[in-house]
Amino acid sequence: MNFKKLNISPTQSLQNAGYDWLLGENTLPYITDSMIEVSEKEAENYYEAANQLYEMFIEAAQYVIDNEQFTNLGIPVNLIELVKYSWENDKNWHLYGRFDLSGGLDGKPIKLIEFNADTATCIPETATVQWASLKANGLDESSQFNTLFESLVNQFQELKKQNPEFVPTLLISTMEGYPEDDTNMQLLGEAAEEAGFEVTFEHIENVEFSVEQGIFQQNEDGSFTKYDYWFKLVPWEYIGWDEPELSKILTDIVTSKKALVMNPVYTLLFQSKGILKILWDLFPNHPLLLETDNQQLVNKSCVEKVLFGREGANVKILSPVGVTLEKTGGDYFEQKAIYQEYTEFLQDNSGNYYQAGVFFAGEGAGLGFRCGGKIIDNKAQFCGHLVG
Fold first, then answer.
1. Packing angle between helix 40-66 and helix 275-282, nearest 10 degrees?
2. Pairing of strands 3-5, 214-218
3. 219: helix, strand or coil
4. pLDDT per residue over 121-143, tens digit each?
């Protein structure tokens, strides 16, 4: 791996570009002051991999629906009706997601690790921070695989075009107490505004839901404002497990076309790591895939992952004879697990590991890297890239 040292740090880059709102303590400390050098061919390969994988995920999700495989993927029963509805009636409802990939540089093949299809973060880092670093350091601003912001604008424009029955008013919600989520959603909101949406932010705890009328925000004077579009950076599985009443209300709201909710609930099919086995069954030995099963692989090192684990929690790396070599803790230990063939991430001379993240927003839209240990978790750093 080759790196380009930045003379002006990402912090200074953002200040110079006027992005002071990104200088929060939960955003900047983990951004590195160097960039990974990527060739044009390598960038093109990442782009093509994301596009091909998305088509494969569509085929795998259709298989799950056709064969009623929801239980194997851990889909909450109270969301299955809405999964089917959103899949059958989709009109550009899936705005974006992020593929996590190994390889792609130094001649190492690209392999799918997983797809963060529902509530993917790293939007500001990918779309803004690494671009601002190029600008501040006098480098070619176009020398990145990075059209994420423009692609999100295009997605919102297409969303509006395909759903003319809805007024382009968008309420964006996160859970209170997660400032990194708020930062991600601020940039998503900017993209929506540029596409012609009226955008408001409100934590989900303060959003009002009505089966008869739709989704509302209460104003300071006690009145209510209705929104036809709602984007929630709240995992669908959390809603299904912890808020069964809300699951029913949202099912009624969406199916009666009182509001459109994004990302659509069918992204649960992509989000579940159970679909990694479906992909392997449908596309055995595909060059972008790693062998995956519901039980430990025979005579192969593998990674044990729970179906809906997040940020590298509850992951184990197992030797061919089942010895745990690395592991992380977490709150998801009661979930079912899948076993994916182990592949080593890219590595620098200091022993740090790098996982590529490629956003998909209508097409492959932006590349960034996370740097950490053998298991990339929530302590990982973000590392930008330079194409040349």
1. 100
2. unpaired
3. coil
4. 999 999 998 998 898 889 998 99
